[in-house]
Specification:
The chain is mainly beta. Helix content is about 5%, strand content about 40%. The strands form three sheets. A six-stranded mixed barrel has the order 1-3-2-6-5-4. A four-stranded mixed sheet has the order 10-7-9-12, with no helix packed on it. Strands 8-13-11 form a three-stranded antiparallel sheet, with no helix packed on it.
Length: about 220
């Protein structure tokens, strides 16, 4: 995994998060690995330009004028996004020790054309990310899942996944990552039999006898 360099400042706690965001800064927290918890902020434009808002693992090296942040290595542990504008609102950076394994989520990338698709099936991913454990410099940006051999009703489970050397999946049950479902068959609706209106005889039925009026 390539490291992304990000300029980080120690956050001035006298300014609230809303004021920081107005100035184009993304407030955050830097914590973990036995170190102190620090309030930080980064340039929102730089953060998004580096692709750090996307899913998956991103190993980040800090550059900073503050000695407590300079050279720090981190992963994005959590990112809060505004539900309407989709603008980042707050980020948690997890401090990592490059000599120790770390667990994080990485994106799954589904590659190949499944045999079941040729038969009319549909590839249906059931997971988009996977938790893995590895040394920080071994963490992949994404894990490829080859679906080429999947026929209709076939699946790939996490235990079958081929991971890069030094990377292991973290799971407690052998869940399904992707499957191929059969094509959806549309059933032509059967026309409902016409229901005669009240007082109108059904087609082919004998008309009711006319009521004779009594003679005057």
């Amino acid at each position: 995994m390539q490291r992304t360099e990000l300029h980080v400042r120690k956050r001035d706690l006298r300014r609230n998060a809303r004021a920081l965001r107005r100035d184009g800064r993304l407030p955050g927290t830097f914590y973990g690995a036995g170190g102190p918890t620090l309030a930080v902020d980064v340039g929102c434009l730089e953060f998004t330009r580096e692709g750090l808002g996307s899913s998956g693992a991103h190993l980040i090296r800090f550059s900073s004028d503050d000695p407590s942040l300079e050279g720090g290595v981190a992963l994005v542990r959590d990112l809060q996004i505004h539900p309407l504008s989709r603008v980042p609102m707050h980020v948690d950076f997890l401090r990592v020790d490059v000599t120790k394994p770390v667990s994080t989520e990485v994106a799954l990338s589904f590659v190949g054309k499944a045999k079941g698709v040729v038969e009319g099936g549909i590839v249906q991913p059931l997971r988009r990310v996977l938790e893995v454990r590895a040394l920080p410099d071994k963490l992949p940006e994404a894990v490829e899942v080859d679906v080429s051999d999947l026929g209709i009703h076939d699946s790939i489970h996490v235990a079958e996944l081929k991971l890069p050397e030094g990377v292991e999946a973290v799971y407690s049950e052998n869940f399904t990552l992707v499957t191929v479902v059969p094509p959806v068959v549309e059933v032509e609706p059967t026309p409902a039999e016409a229901v005669p209106a009240e007082g109108v005889p059904a087609e082919g039925a004998a008309a009711p006898p006319k009521e004779e009026k009594p003679e005057a």
